[in-house]
Amino acid sequence: MKNNIYRIQKQLFFAVAAAALLSGCTGPAKGESAAAADTVWFPAEASTAFTEEAETETPAGASAAAAPTETVSREDALLSDTYDLTRVTFTAEAAGTSIYIVGGIHGNETAGWKAANALARELSDGTRKLARGKVSVAAPVNAWGAAHDKRTTYGNVDINRSFPGDPAGNDGEQIAAALFDDIRAQQPDLVLDLHEALVHTDGSDSLGNSIICGSDQGIEELFLGLLTASDRDPDFPKLNVFGSPPAGSINRTAGDILHLPVITVETRREDDLEQRIYSQLRVIEYILAWYGM
Ligand SMILES: [Zn+2]
Hints:
Layout: H1 2-19, H2 43-57, E1 72-80, E2 85-92, E3 98-103, H3 110-125, E4 134-138, H4 143-148, H5 171-186, E5 190-196, E6 210-213, H6 220-232, E7 240-242, H7 250-258, E8 262-267, H8 273-290
Parallel strand pairs: 3-4, 3-5, 5-8, 6-7
Antiparallel strand pairs: 1-2, 2-4, 6-8
Helix pairs in contact: 3-8
This protein binds zinc ion.
Zinc ion (ZN) binds next to loops.
């Protein structure tokens, strides 16, 4: 009986996934098409702006530079000095799954990169233990966009249509290449890509809280668990599922080229920021718990 229910759920999952439209992340929002022409962009300026913001968010008594706990080591890697892109990795003594979390590829999708940074802070100061495995965090990938509340780069490039990137290309392609090369070198078991759903310009609702998968990536059971978690816990975000991540997105490209499973998480922009960060963290923590981390 249980097997039958599981099979039906699985069939339902694939039916929904097959019928799914593109994600809420497709296409730049209207009004964002013109780069911030009235603003002169110096990378160091955004770096300072972001650092100040990050500092005000650090809980009292905790420091971004706090010593790691005895059993968890921390590595900071500068992926691009020009674009203020860093990746921090926390590694437990016990071997386990390696998860690479990417937030703020779209700079104005704030809850994603704030949730990623909140997790990194907790792992750094030891308030969140890591039982096994490895967690890498790169956020916000679009540092200029995050500092200026813009989806795209200073050069008005959508990084999530620019993968695998080009080190000699435009700013978005350079950022995409720096990130993609690091993911290729790290060879994680799973990539989490944190976004927020667009609110449509006609005033209709966004696609809501959702997860997006590429093709069959061997994580169907985890997907089912995420989709049904709200049945058991009303505080867990109720998730829609979509397939067919767009060409040039990290989801599509890491799947096609690196053969890595990627889950894109989208939060519902109609909710307030605190709720959206909470939803992002619930999904992240569900996945970490799934792998016993
Ligand atoms: Zn997005």
